[in-house]
Amino acid sequence: MPLRRFGAHRSLVSSSQPKQLSYGFTKMNTSRSGYRVFSANSTPACTELAKRITERLGVELGKSVVFQETNSETKVDLKESVRGQDVFIIQTIPRDVNTAIMELLVMTYALKSACARNIIGVVPYFPYSKQCKLRKRGSVVCKLLASMLAKAGASHVITMDLHQKEIQGFFSFPVDNLRASPFLIQYIQEEIPDYRNAVIVAKSPSAAKRAQSFAERLRLGLAVMHGEAHQSESDMTDGRNSPPSTRTTAGHRGLELPLMMAKEKPPISVVGDVGGRIAIVVDDIIDDVEDFVAAAETLKERGAYKIYIMATHGLLSAEAPRLIEESAIDEVVVTNTVPHEVQKLQCPKIKTVDVSMILAEAIRRIHNGESMSYLFRNITVDD
Length: 383
Description:
Number of domains: 2
Distance between the termini: 57 Å
Function: Seems to play a negative regulatory role in 5-phosphoribose 1-diphosphate synthesis.
Radius of gyration: 24 Å
GO molecular function, one term: magnesium ion binding
Protein name: Phosphoribosyl pyrophosphate synthase-associated protein 1
Domain Ribose-phosphate pyrophosphokinase N-terminal: 43-153
Largest sheet: 7 strands, mixed
Strand content: 15-25%
CATH architecture of the largest domain: 3-Layer(aba) Sandwich
Order of helices and strands: EHEEEHEHEEHEHEEEHEHEHEH
CATH topology of the largest domain: Rossmann fold
Strand order of the largest sheet: 10-9-8-11-12-13-14
Shape: globular
CATH class of the largest domain: Alpha Beta
Low-confidence stretches: 1-32, 230-241
GO biological process, one term: purine nucleotide biosynthetic process
Number of helices: 9
């Protein structure tokens, strides 16, 4: 009887009982064909999350080299066979967003050329997610990126807390939009003393649904801020009076349409009572922090004695660490979907929550063909 050879799959087979992880997650069940986990970036800061995920899965990080040529072109060199396997590419987005995108696309295409069976992108923070609406004479860049991933060979994407859930419709393949809220809520319960005396604050009306979800799960009050501090997604001067009214045409004149009044935001105000409370401001992304600093000052004036900022993705660009350190904000809590170790050294107020557990479990379930509904339990359409 011929011997059965496992070859490269031998390293994935566990010889002992699977080790139990937190929340009931277990080591990878390798009853199906093999899989590999790669990092699309070779820098230590960006591979940190990939290492945490592979440790939870009990596998080694795939061997590859990703580097920039002298002319800044991206090059990927795979150091092991991936033929017929499920391959998961973990890509965290550093400050150089465009280089990270090219790394992801080039590695995806390299794996497709190497005959990988399925290529799943694990992109916790999906770049260009704020450019998901047509404004002025611009373009929906997020949809372009989704099309590029599909063309490169991706068959699935795992991400976390998309800026707009409707972004999933841009993709021609499945997308799993995981939630970081269970980990942030756990942090509130375990790390914020007297959190029962807190109130959840939405920095703007557009963030009210997210804040309401936190408030209902924690059985806390809700406050909403409105006014001049939020101008990041203004629709003013969007070019819709094109062609210019000064242009004249021969023949008949255009119809006199009712004039749309320009928007004018009132002075910043808080709807809800924050006096003598801990204010917890929740959002999905914290990048430029001027709006958060202004919100913190207003909440202090209204009587809040402690202010926390909680967000899934901590981009913390430009002078964000310095502004946070000098502001009335007591603590900024973000997850490790984006590397921010440098910012933490500059500002001790920044704290990190690890979400590698849910990403590892998503990889395990997708590879084994298990249902993903367990990861979305108690999550409603509005969450």
